[in-house]
Amino acid sequence: MSRAEEFEELRPLLFSIAYRILGSVGEAEDAVQETWLRYEASPTRPASVKAFLSAVVTRIAIDVLRSARVRREEYAGLWFPEPLLTDPYEDPERSAELADSVSMAALLLLERLSPLERAVFVLREVFGFGFGDVASAVGRSEAACRQLAVRARRHMDAGRARFEADRREREELAGRFFDAFREGDVAGLRELLAADAQMVGDSGGKAPLWGKGVFGAENVARTLVAMLAPFAAIGGVVQSHEVNGQPGAIFRDQDGKVVNTWTLDILDGRIQMIRAVINPDKLGHLGPVADAWAVVREAKQARRSTSPRTSD
């Protein structure tokens, strides 16, 4: 097998490692490409191509993450990972770990870890690498990596939801939610939302956003209904779609361009959180991106034209 064939076989794994460390599709793809360039230029063939390439992509991702941390501290508003529609790497023996680790909630928990802790957690807990390979990848001793893994696991466990719905229950609840959303059913939405439900978004200051968020089942339900009718009136479409392994949706304008994505956090039979990614810089990998400001202007005009006139 040629180097190029070996690399392409491992590309899904390398991307999945890099994405979990970085939370960015574009940066993960760049890290994978840089890994190929280094492998292609290497004068020797490693004993384990998988271990070698995983180590290279991990080191690159750690370096990128360290510089990205500074930018994220200066980020306008909430920072969310770039939405991922499909994880290219599959491993039946680790399907639960892989699915859990790519959710928005898990990726945001990973943001609390240091770059080294994050890399060790991803390699060890998510992908099941032995501590020898983990140590080689991050340039630390096995003993140090064991300590990093313990700290990372403690941080992750402390932030996780105590009870999580199984996949079938989440999908069924999400289906009912989007049916009620499309029908403009405030009562139906309110029934599916947790009492302290939140709707929050990441616009990066580059797209319209509903303040710092919408809080409480009643407010969220009414906001959802108020936003859909004018969006639908201008040809907007809400396409239910799994996003980061969770029930979610892609919003598209009348030309099919991406406006934003949603993910739903579901716990105890209720929707706890709706996370929207609206920053156009984070949506380009999904296809052509809409001008969200123009969409909102058109929607407001549609709302005014369809609102009943009242008199004093």
TrEMBL record:
<comment type="similarity">
    <text>Belongs to the sigma-70 factor family. ECF subfamily.</text>
</comment>
<feature type="domain" description="RNA polymerase sigma-70 region 2">
    <location>
        <begin position="7"/>
        <end position="69"/>
    </location>
</feature>
<keyword id="KW-0804">Transcription</keyword>
<protein>
    <submittedName>
        <fullName>RNA polymerase sigma-70 factor</fullName>
    </submittedName>
</protein>
<dbReference type="InterPro" id="IPR013249">
    <property type="entry name" value="RNA_pol_sigma70_r4_t2"/>
</dbReference>
<dbReference type="InterPro" id="IPR052704">
    <property type="entry name" value="ECF_Sigma-70_Domain"/>
</dbReference>
<keyword id="KW-0731">Sigma factor</keyword>
<dbReference type="InterPro" id="IPR007627">
    <property type="entry name" value="RNA_pol_sigma70_r2"/>
</dbReference>
<feature type="domain" description="RNA polymerase sigma factor 70 region 4 type 2">
    <location>
        <begin position="105"/>
        <end position="156"/>
    </location>
</feature>
<keyword id="KW-0805">Transcription regulation</keyword>
<dbReference type="Pfam" id="PF08281">
    <property type="entry name" value="Sigma70_r4_2"/>
</dbReference>
<dbReference type="Pfam" id="PF04542">
    <property type="entry name" value="Sigma70_r2"/>
</dbReference>
<dbReference type="InterPro" id="IPR014303">
    <property type="entry name" value="RNA_pol_sigma-70_ECF"/>
</dbReference>
<dbReference type="InterPro" id="IPR014284">
    <property type="entry name" value="RNA_pol_sigma-70_dom"/>
</dbReference>
